[in-house]
Specification:
Shape of chain B: globular
CATH architecture of chain B: 3-Layer(aba) Sandwich
Number of helices of chain A: 13
Low-confidence stretches of chain A: none
Structural class of chain B: alpha+beta
CATH topology of chain B: Peroxisomal Thiolase, Chain A, domain 1
Order of helices and strands of chain A: EHEEHHEHHHEHEHEEHEHEHHEEEEEH
Number of helices of chain B: 10
CATH superfamily of chain B: Thiolase/Chalcone synthase
Number of domains of chain A: 1
Oligomer: heterodimer
Radius of gyration of chain B: 18 Å
Largest sheet of chain B: 9 strands, mixed
Shape of chain A: globular
Mean pLDDT of chain B: 93
CATH class of chain A: Alpha Beta
Strand content of chain A: 15-25%
Low-confidence stretches of chain B: none
CATH topology of chain A: Peroxisomal Thiolase, Chain A, domain 1
Structural class of chain A: alpha/beta
Number of strands of chain B: 9
Largest sheet of chain A: 11 strands, mixed
Largest interface: A-B, 64 and 60 residues
CATH architecture of chain A: 3-Layer(aba) Sandwich
Radius of gyration of chain A: 20 Å
Helix content of chain A: 25-40%
Helix content of chain B: 25-40%
Number of domains of chain B: 1
Distance between the termini of chain B: 30 Å
Chain lengths: 400, 258
């Protein structure tokens, strides 16, 4: 698999409306989790909520209007992201750009209101369009319409590995010659369905989560939009970070519990290394999926031990932002790219005492001043769907 | 670079009587005997349709399901489960079933497929609204160009209450194909890289009406083309704005074997 260039990225999360806010959260290693404000639930809920005002959807595209589309638009409008995408569209042409966006719950936050209307009035609100808000593809279609992109446009939805897999899709689309650039990422909002759903699975922590800690007792749900622009490599983008490979696998074990020894996760990580022609010893940092659930962290720690041994520095970011579900793959790839750009090994916010069963090198605190040439970012989802994203510094950096 | 995808097998299943006549293709009844009882009890109709079609396609292609990567596509996925969960959330006291919650994800069918077959290969679940069939063929093409080997492609849907998408008539159906980067003696047809036609494509009015209400049925064109040996046929994959299509030709070895 040939590498592709990552020429721009942006993120809106509980940390704030720009990657600079995400970088600050990583550097400070201070949680952005707080009690849920967006709606009420009858149990304690600490979440990673986006509290700022989200942009309005323009009139021509109102059919897509929902919190997920607004969150996606906020990320598109952040920093220079939109102008970078528009420059690429101008350069390659609208039909040579793809849009592949991952989401788990799409517009369900708004559908929940529509269902309350339905129960009261025995019909859905006249202006509610399931196909443009509720369905999985809606956010990808909205972004393509917003940018007048006419190339391949679709959604990937494999639960919490979703947006990590959009990078794999983009690399294939570019390497097969179907696209010159692809807008990828993940967008998911808080909604009652996921709060009640994870609560029914007894997986929700009533305090800020503690990834990899011996006393970890569950996850905090978050919301975020993470977008990246991937392009075919050229001399023009030789200074851009690179996507080397995405290893993909299945546990083939259970719908909601991970493989007990992390077999599927290890397969995904090893596959990424094999595709890139790298050895485990060459990897400088691993961003863990580390949800802070008892079983997930145990499974991942064993997988890391099996593939990398006990030396490679690892950390998890869900103590900062919560588990942003379908967005977490993209958001944590972006956080990893920031770590590589600013020479910092991120810490694990919430980790106090590493689970003594784990024989891996999990960092509780950030380590600034550390060069990272190669990094991996893990995302594992319901149904045992695994993706490990392998990133590298730019060709220029590695060649210097 | 790969010049065409080899189609190794095709399979369609549906519990709807009369759909075969409407679509003009052979449709098998839903066969749940391949689904272990423990999963059968907790799986939805769309998941059963996907698994039934996929199992038949793998058997016909003579491949090991446990060693084959897979690609699942559906416009709505587990729409009825999500519908029931959203209705439950309107109640004063909410009781969400943990099983229904984890079965509501879009990759439920893909997940149960991997569990039933013991397949740890890559698996993706996707959707693209009206363009779902065109985009899943694009994804399959790019997978085979970059990875080689074989790929199981599964497209499935269920019918929904009218209030979810008024005027649309989704059918309960599962399609599956085994595709390959290289031809062999199992190859039944060849399929080109998807392309955009600069003009609307010829579609019989009856089928057009069905596809306009149920975009997954667009795969019917490709299945019809495979059933009729002869010259290269254009199989439309989507109906509006961008007319995605593929060229399909039945393999000569398959014609002589018929």
């Amino acid at each position: 698999m040939r590498p592709v260039a990552i020429t721009e990225y942006q993120c809106v999360s509980a940390a704030g409306a720009e990657i600079s806010a995400l970088l600050s959260a990583v550097v400070e290693n201070q949680t952005r989790l707080a009690p849920l404000q967006l709606f009420n639930v009858p149990f304690p809920a600490i979440v990673g909520e986006v509290t700022g005002v989200l942009p309005e959807i323009r009139d021509e595209l109102k059919r897509y209007d929902c919190r997920n589309a607004r969150l996606a638009l906020a990320a598109l409008e952040a920093g220079h992201f939109r102008s970078s995408v528009e420059a690429v569209i101008e350069w390659y042409g609208t039909d040579r750009i793809g849009v592949v966006i991952g989401t788990s719950t799409s517009g369900i936050y708004n559908s929940e209101s529509a269902y309350r209307f339905f129960v009261e009035h025995r019909k859905m609100p006249d202006d509610y369009r399931f196909m443009h808000r509720h369905f999985i593809h809606a956010t990808a279609e909205f972004l393509a319409s917003e940018l007048a992109i006419t190339g391949p446009c679709y959604a990937v939805s494999t639960a919490c590995s979703t947006s990590a897999k959009t990078l794999a899709v983009a690399q294939r689309l570019i390497n097969s010659g179907l696209c010159d650039a692809v807008l990828v990422g993940g967008v998911d909002t808080l909604c009652r369905l996921t709060l009640f759903g994870f609560n029914s699975l007894e997986l929700v922590a009533d305090q800020p989560c503690q990834p990899m800690d011996e006393n970890r007792n569950g996850i905090n749900i978050g919301e975020a939009a993470g977008l990246l622009l991937l392009e075919t490599p050229s001399s023009d983008n030789a200074s851009a970070m690179q996507l080397l490979a995405v290893g993909e696998s299945c546990d083939a074990h259970h719908m909601s519990a991970p493989h007990p020894t992390g077999e599927g996760a290890a397969l995904a990580m090893q596959s990424a290394l094999d595709m890139a022609g790298l050895t485990a010893a060459q990897i400088d940092y691993v961003n863990l999926h580390a949800t802070a659930s008892r079983l997930n962290d145990l499974s991942e720690a064993q997988a890391i031990d099996n593939v990398f041994g006990s030396e490679v520095p690892c950390s998890g970011m869900k103590g900062l932002l919560g588990h942003t579900l379908g967005a977490c793959g993209a958001v944590e790839v972006i956080a990893t790219l920031l770590a590589m750009e600013y020479d910092i090994l991120p810490g694990t916010c919430g980790l106090q005492t590493l689970d003594p069963q784990f024989h891996i090198n999990v960092l509780a605190e950030p380590r600034p001043g550390t060069n990272i040439d190669y990094a991996m970012s893990n995302a594992f989802g319901f149904g045992g769907n695994n993706a490990s994203v392998l990133l590298a510094q730019s060709q220029q950096h590695l060649g210097s | 670079m790969m010049s065409s995808m080899a189609i190794q097998s095709v399979s369609v299943c549906s519990p709807e009587h009369g759909l075969a006549n409407q679509l003009g293709i052979t449709i098998n009844p839903l066969d749940i005997s391949c689904i272990p009882a423990s999963i059968r009890r907790r799986s939805s109709l769309p998941t059963r349709l996907a698994i039934s079609a996929a199992m038949t396609a793998c058997e016909q292609a003579g491949i090991k399901a446990s060693e084959t990567p897979s690609l699942f596509a559906s416009v709505g996925g587990e729409m009825l489960i999500t519908d029931q969960l959203c209705l439950e959330l309107t109640k004063p006291v909410v009781h969400i079933s943990p099983t229904q919650f984890h079965n509501s994800v879009h990759n439920t069918a893909a997940a149960y497929w991997s569990i039933i077959t013991g397949c740890q290969q890559a698996s993706t679940a996707m959707a693209a609204g009206d363009h779902t069939i065109a985009m899943v063929i694009i994804e399959a093409w790019s997978w085979l160009v970059t990875n080689g080997g074989k790929l199981l492609l599964v497209c499935y849907e269920e019918s929904w209450p009218d209030y979810i998408d008024p005027g649309n008539g989704y059918h309960s159906i599962g399609y599956a194909m085994v595709l390959s980067a290289e031809s062999d003696d199992k190859t039944i047809a060849h399929c080109s890289c998807p392309y955009v036609s600069d003009q609307p494509l010829q579609i019989t009015s009856g089928l057009k009406k069905l596809i306009m209400c149920d975009p997954l049925l667009a795969l019917t064109h490709l299945f019809q083309a495979i059933a009729k040996p002869g010259d290269v046929k254009v199989a439309p994959l989507s109906l509006d704005s961008r007319y995605w299509a593929v060229d399909v030709q039945v393999a000569s070895s398959h014609i002589s074997a018929r």
